[in-house]
Amino acid sequence: MLRFEMQVILIDTFGFFFRSFYALPPLFNSKGFPTSLLTVFANLIFEIFKKNKGCCIIFTLEGHDNKRKEIYKDYKANRSEAPADLLLQLPVAVEWLQKMGLKTLQINGYEADDCIATLSHLAQAQGFQVRIISHDKDLYQLINENVIIYDYGKKRVITAAECVEKFGVSPRDFITYQSIVGDSSDNIPGIKGIGAKGAVKILEHFKSLESLYDSITADTSNVESLLGKRAVALILASKDNAFLSRELVTLNSHLLENYDFLESKNEFENSPLLKIAPELKELEMQKILSTIGADRLQLESPPPLRRGVGGWVKNPDNPKHQTTQIDSIESHNTNSITYNTHNKPTPQPPSAREGGYKEPNDKGGGLSTPHDYIESNAQDFIESKSQNIKEDSKDFIESNLGNLQDSKKDSNVSQNLDSKKDSNKFTFKAHLINDKDKLFTLLDSIPKDTTIAFDCETTGLDYRSEKMVGFSFCFDGFNGYYVPFLHKPPISNYNELSKKEIESIILNSKIDSVKQISIADAKLALQQIFTHPLIAHNIKFDIQVALHNFGIYPQNDIKDSMILAWLLNPGSKIGLKELLYKYFKYETEDFDKLMEKIYPKKKLTQKPTFDFVSLEQAKDYGALDSIAAYVLYHKLESMLGIDLKQELKNIETPLIPILINMENNGICVDRQYFIKLKPKFEIMLNALANKIHTQSGYHGLNKSKFNVNSPKQVSEVLFNELKLSTKGNPKKSTNEIYLEAIISEHPVVETLLEYREVFKLFSSYIEPILRLTKGAENAENKGLFNTLDSKDSIESKNRIYTQFLQTGTATGRLSSKSPNLQNISVRSDLGKSIRAGFIARSGYVLASLDYSQIELRLLAHFSGDKTLISAFHNNADIHAQTAKMIFGENIESSGDFATFRNIAKSINFGLIYGMGARKLAQTLQITQFKAKEYIDKYFAKLPHIRDFLESKRVEIENLGYAETLFKRRRYFDFSIANEGVRQGFLREGVNTIFQGSAADLIKKSMIEICDTFGLSLQDSTNSKNIESKGLFSNIDSIESKSQMPAHHPFNKTDSIESKGLFSNIDSKDFIESNSLNSKDSKEILSPIHHPICKDQMPTHHPFKSENSDYKIKLLLQVHDELIFEIKQDLAQNYTQKIKQIMESTYKLKVPLICNIAIASNWAALK
């Protein structure tokens, strides 16, 4: 039985040392001591012990007196001298292992590869899986279903498939392969004249040297017909060398009889690097010290330790983490391992400028192992030609450079790197600007087209209703400027005040007493900033805040550091806080902690928001955001490959303004319909709750009823009282996935799942929709719409505005929230009842354009399967065709054909999602045996599909990522995955290929559609532009201009008019009638919205507004479907044009087909 929960991890220690040294650029500390190898080694130790808790970790070392040299004196005789910088670092690295008490194995006479082979053999015999950390091809012979190799430099798992792909032979044939081709780096002769292709050809016919030579002896002419006369002659001429080479390349897997792996179990609570923190400090390795938290400790100088006989070890009282040194294998058994328990002196790294290496002496200052041992093993590893290392050094550098102390400054953010100590350190300077002269003088000094990073600070996260209170900007990567304009005095004596007193202060506090920029000047400053190329982290949010507060918009390129981080690794955390720590080890304080520190938690109805943060604190917090966005953008942009740069330029960046428009478009709802629907759902919920209580025995007067919405109470009833199975569910979770597994055990489980489905729809849609559209009801009753057309305004209030998340999924699909309009089921009656309440506005219709079977078409495209390709070209019913392949042609005339077709449909789509027999059985409610039978029949008819999907699984595991049609990647760390996680990764990886590629196509279509119809030029918020979008849009006054510096470009009234900063009323009249004084601040804050002037905007601008009489709007994207609102008389014409665009967006091997549906409500579109 394999122990999937715990692996044995074997490190090819010297192999790692030399790969690191030759692949990475040299680094030195201030004393001139080289540290590049040590830096990467420290990072390896940190990562491996952090990510592999409970695993057995062993570092293998080279033994003295290599026996292979006794067999063949020229073995590794062609290697050059080890560089001095390498020799300086090796003894320090080996000493670290011993000082940390990490388990090592070294057997005299044998190489580390032999130790690995022996430990691998013993580990498998004891039921462990084995992971070997190395890039050495000599270890490929050990690979099997329980043994993998992990290339740390390339972050790639190497399995049997990788071996076959790279060399053309399986691991079991690799010894024979190496015996034939030899190895020039180790000076192994092989069969002279036979190369890699010749060896593969030989192994196609003969699986061993004995078989090869015996066959030549028995029937030379037959072998010559297979391999050629010249090849046979070469084989015969090198017979002795072939067998000699086999002896040299074969790793010895029987050097030990037994081994106690549990002695090497990783039980470190903290990083073992803390044990050598003084040494790391001495070497000036500040980044790793910060990573392990040692920079916060008081570190003493390394204590001088005593050298003993036989070796060195940190802690003689803890044999669990000591070094095993075996002098000879003949006398060794598990009871005779001798541990070296003598203290060793601390290394004093010599300066390269002060004479290099110094021999150890009895007074201290020695190195971890004798110099001749280090040097001799160094010689064995130095290849006469370093081509192998050079070929993959680029990948290694790209994978590990982020872990190093960079020796050069980033040219884009030069001021943000401290070259004296830690060049990867994030530093910045925050400035407060609350004087308008200083603000505009600074802005005027910024050269045209200089990229500016900016960030908005607001009173909340709902950009439609919350106020911007300040903003920050940065244009050099070091200096950040925070500009407050709507801050209120901080609440003094907060802890002593009562709840009532605090809430009174919050409601009545004024901005007048805080020295800050006026709202009018803030708008002008933002307008000037928005003429520059912009960077922000989640720029869509900041643009929306500016639009809804001031009615202003970017007039230049936009760039998003969050999207860059997502493209580089879509499954990772991409918040500013996480990225700053990931790339700079800089710890920031998140907003909630900041607010809690300033205003400790109290039960308040009205809580303090960012406008109550002091200007000094706001300066530090706000400025950091824009600086971080600037620095991260430039760092991450430099990490993008060509394909991702194209994805960023052609897809993700153009999509941002489209999503902004879609969010502002919203979708109409029938409020009265939802008012009537609400009690129906309440009746259903009450009935189901009563049924749950009855089925579980909670009825009558005997027991009080439990809360069916409480997971804790439901768990108590299901697992403690009803005693339902907890197999695979040790925490007794009531999550849907666990309930489905026990649905047959008790009828209450099915009822509970039904209740949750109803409750989810009720709480996620009906209640929020009625709450969000409450303003429309008030508007009809109170007539609040002043100059606005009342009908348009009411319809605007009856719209629901979702938010689209561009970086919300690892596959690349868009997601939505507040509310999530992508998650309303189209298949269930309940879901349809919710969709029916989403309607087109008067005079318009809803139109749906949906890619037909897009993922199956992509399967046909990627696999090249002729049967699938032919079916799609002939416009066949693919599910019906699959049903006939599985169940026979005669089923079409049977009365159960629809059932068979549904089974085929589940199989078709299930295989793309990585569905196995168990999941298919659950979906179809059949036995697992029957489900497996269906899948086997499917693959028997479509073997090419089976082979393709399997090849993709192998590729994903080998490469560590899945790739979409447009070369986006989703990464998986197989190195830390047990079998269950591994299988999950493979399912997700295969799914990403298809689902992610479909996401690529729909995004590309959206961009082309919006370009064609001018939708990317349309802000499209109802009711004469932006009825809800300019909390401060009426602040373009003469007063604000007259107080500007005389040289300011917006100082003159005619300049203002020419810039088009005002609403669509006469600009001059507006200026004269809207002068603001300080007493007007209350009016400024009231929602009197004057739309921005669309007429004077550039015609190509992505945020240009249209009036309410629009022809078409893009409202929603629901995965493979786009939903539009189109004028009724234009719907047929427009949908045909959209269909043509979507079907021609990308040429696949099969046609792309779109289905069109037109209706008055969403439910009727399907």
UniProtKB/TrEMBL annotation:
Residues 321-345 have a biased composition (Polar residues). Keywords: DNA damage, DNA repair, DNA replication, DNA-binding, DNA-directed DNA polymerase, Nucleotidyltransferase, Transferase. It comes from Helicobacter saguini. It comes from the Bacteria. Residues 831-1130 form the DNA-directed DNA polymerase family A palm domain. InterPro entries: 3'-5'_exonuclease_dom, 5-3_exonucl_a-hlix_arch_N, 5-3_exonuclease, 5-3_exonuclease_C_sf, DNA-dir_DNA_pol_A_CS, DNA-dir_DNA_pol_A_palm_dom, DNA/RNA_pol_sf, DNA_polI_H3TH. This is DNA polymerase I. Residues 430-641 form the 3'-5' exonuclease domain. It catalyses: DNA(n) + a 2'-deoxyribonucleoside 5'-triphosphate = DNA(n+1) + diphosphate. SMART domains: 35EXOc, 53EXOc, HhH2, POLAc. Pfam families: 5_3_exonuc (PF01367), 5_3_exonuc_N (PF02739), DNA_pol_A (PF00476), DNA_pol_A_exo1 (PF01612). Its EC number is 2.7.7.7. PROSITE patterns: DNA_POLYMERASE_A. GO terms for biological process: DNA-templated DNA replication; double-strand break repair. Residues 6-267 form the 5'-3' exonuclease domain. Belongs to the DNA polymerase type-A family. One of its GO terms (molecular function) is DNA binding.
